[in-house]
Amino acid sequence: GRGRQYRVASRVRFGDTDPAGRLRLDALARLVQDIGNDDLADAGLDAASPWVTRRTEVRVAGAWPRLGEPLEVTTFCSGLGRRWGERRTSVRSAQGAAEVSAVWIFVDADGKPARLPAEFLTVYEESADGRRPSTRLHHPPPPPEATTRPWPLRATDVDAFGHVNNAATWAPVEDEVSRRGVVPRWAELEYRGAIAPDDDVVLRGEAGAGDDLWLWLTCDGEVRASARLGC
């Protein structure tokens, strides 16, 4: 495509996989977050600038990357709004690829959405090519019959902005996948609000139509994040 693309080589490591050697969802999210950060730094932009994730979609073509496999990771800005951007990242192994699309919102020092800086637009407008991604969220609330269990937070879940990191939000999703003995082919995670270090988090789940699985992270009955998976 047109415009800037950033590409790095990586590898699936021991800390990235489930017991069967599959690249975990939370490890994939962290890899995508890291290459996006590296792209900003490589472009001469502020790599510490504050962004929060609004929505992330993952689709796997072929086999999931596995322990020890080399990876080719490519990322680019695929859309822009006034206060947000969409980044697409391809994580390719010899047997398949995980394609990740994430909508990020740029925020100010108070955590409120802010206009994208001019220097950011200069770097990424060409690859965005006029596309304007939606920030709307579509997941329904959890039904009354959804299963519930507590999800205790760890200090390592919290990032420099004082809330649970977007990659760490995938950890309970991965845990539920493991408990149910399924392997997702696609997944979508929506972020509705920040999870603070002292929040009491409840994980709710329900098997949907077909092979769908729905999950919600709630605090005091309020949904902070939700996931839909196809297994």
Largest pleated sheet = 10 strands, antiparallel
The global form is globular
- The CATH class of the largest domain is identified as Alpha Beta
**According to CATH, what is the topology of the largest domain?**
Thiol Ester Dehydrase, Chain A
- Count of spatially separate domains: 2
Radius of gyration, CA atoms, in whole angstroms: 17 Å
Question: What is the tally of helical segments?
Answer: 3
Helix content: 10-25%
Chain-averaged pLDDT: 96
Strand content: 35-45%
Name the structural class. Answer: alpha+beta
The helix-strand sequence is: EHEEEEHEHEEEE
Extended strand count: 10
- CATH superfamily of the largest domain, called what? Hotdog Thioesterase
The parts where pLDDT drops under 50 for at least 5 residues are: none
Oligomer: single chain
Tell me the distance between the termini: 31 Å
Query: Mind telling me which CATH architecture of the largest domain this is?
Result: Roll
Strand order of the largest sheet: 1-3-4-5-2-7-10-9-8-6
Structure write-up:
The chain folds into two domains: 6-128, Hotdog Thioesterase (Thiol Ester Dehydrase, Chain A), CATH 3.10.129; 147-230, Thiol Ester Dehydrase, Chain A (Roll), CATH 3.10.129.10. The model has no long low-confidence stretch (mean pLDDT 96). It has three helices and ten strands; from the N terminus they run E-H-E-E-E-E-H-E-H-E-E-E-E. It has 231 residues and is α+β, with helices and mostly antiparallel strands. A ten-stranded antiparallel beta sheet has the order 1-3-4-5-2-7-10-9-8-6. The chain is globular.
